[in-house]
Q: What sequence folds into this?
């Protein structure tokens, strides 16, 4: 194939129709994974995996009613609410995450929106973590345009704000905010010059068409998310989705594969849910184009594989940490 055609085949598209995305989902499994793996190899070294680590810097008591979340004040999940952590404790946790192999440190707060009074403390955490040589990410709920600029100025590289599911299924999962609220915050994050981390959750009782709708919405954003996390629901007792039927493992792999095809240059994260996935399912996800994971034994409030387990998995698969931009010339 002429070089121009090779380049053109993965030109970012922002005009995907639902029918096109559903048609990808409907491909025979091996054909879909083969196509996704081919896209993956054109843009990334398939042996490389980016590693992020999460810390809940403010836990529980959240005013939103996201039906999947352990931290919503609307549900009795038995989680103990905690105040915003001191910046020094967050920086100490980031230091040990770095020692365990993390490349990006993601600070999560159970807030509906960031309050200006908390900005100085959050900014101190961000600049302290950045000074350790880690990439910084935060997920703090809705932001104003000015708050996004302030976080960028403090050294924030990524902001996580998920669309979670299709626009039409969203109101059945959360009713205290709208899809448009999410899109507004994402626009502020892009305008401030930060990278976006934006994805969703499968296994919330949604249909395949909803999964297609989520990926369509992500791909049709003005810019593809820089990081695209696909979470498999961690069912939390006491939440409305605590008894959800788990999504089939092959369907989860399909979701990763379609994300990779729609957003060829995004880092696609095999996010929450690895705790209940086999090594073989995770290997299929990597083959289908996932190239990022959360490491450390805990996500925000729920379990994640231990570091030694992941080291063994990656060694057995012949995979290694992704070369980061700031290391490329070293
Ligand atoms: N409060 C902020 C917000 O909602 O944007 C940040 C924290 S929130 C916990 C970040 C994301 O974690 C959610 O958007 C959702 O996609 C994911 N998440 C939360 N609970 C989850 C669960 N039980 N299983 C899988 N993913 C979950
Ligand atoms: C994302 O998409 N998943 C992460 C991160 N972004 C913030 C959060 C997963 C949370 C899983 C449930 C918990 O541990 O509370
Ligand atoms: Fe609050 Fe975020 Fe949990 Fe929703 S997902 S209840 S906004 S912490």
A:
């Amino acid at each position: 194939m002429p070089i121009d055609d090779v380049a053109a085949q993965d030109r970012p598209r922002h005009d995907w129709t639902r029918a096109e995305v559903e048609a990808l989902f409907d491909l025979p499994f091996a054909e879909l994974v083969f196509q996704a793996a081919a896209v993956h190899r054109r843009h990334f070294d398939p042996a490389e995996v980016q590693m992020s680590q999460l810390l809940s810097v403010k836990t529980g008591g959240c005013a939103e009613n996201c039906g999947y979340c352990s931290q919503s004040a609307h549900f009795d999940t038995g989680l103990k609410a905690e105040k915003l952590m001191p910046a020094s404790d967050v920086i100490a946790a980031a230091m040990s995450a770095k020692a365990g192999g993390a490349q990006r440190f993601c600070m999560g707060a159970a807030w509906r929106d960031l309050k200006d009074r908390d900005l100085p403390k959050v900014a101190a955490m961000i600049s302290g973590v950045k000074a350790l040589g880690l990439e910084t990410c935060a997920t703090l709920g809705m932001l104003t345009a000015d708050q996004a600029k302030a976080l960028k100025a403090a050294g924030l590289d990524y902001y996580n704000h998920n669309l979670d599911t299709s626009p039409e299924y969203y109101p059945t999962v959360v009713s205290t905010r709208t899809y448009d609220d999410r899109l507004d915050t994402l626009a502020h994050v892009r305008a401030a010059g930060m990278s976006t981390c934006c994805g969703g959750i499968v296994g919330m009782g949604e249909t395949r068409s909803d999964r297609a709708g989520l990926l369509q919405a992500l791909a049709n954003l003005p810019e593809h998310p820089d990081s695209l996390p696909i979470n498999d629901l961690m069912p939390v007792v006491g939440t409305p989705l605590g008894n959800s039927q788990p999504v089939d493992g092959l369907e989860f792999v399909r979701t990763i594969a379609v994300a990779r095809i729609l957003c060829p240059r995004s880092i696609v994260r095999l996010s929450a849910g690895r705790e209940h996935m086999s090594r073989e399912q995770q290997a299929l996800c990597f083959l289908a184009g996932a190239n990022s994971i959360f490491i450390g034994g805990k996500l925000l409030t729920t379990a994640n594989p231990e570091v030694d387990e992941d080291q063994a998995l990656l060694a057995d698969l012949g995979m290694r940490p992704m070369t980061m931009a700031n290391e490329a010339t070293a």
Summary: The pocket of S-adenosylmethionine (ligand 1) is lined by residues 68-69, 108, 110-111, 139, 141, 161-162, 164, 201, 231, 233-234, 236, 272, 300 (CB under 6 Å). The chain has a mean pLDDT of 95. Residues 153 and 313 are 38 Å apart (CA to CA). The domain at 16-329 is CATH 3.20.20.70 (TIM Barrel).
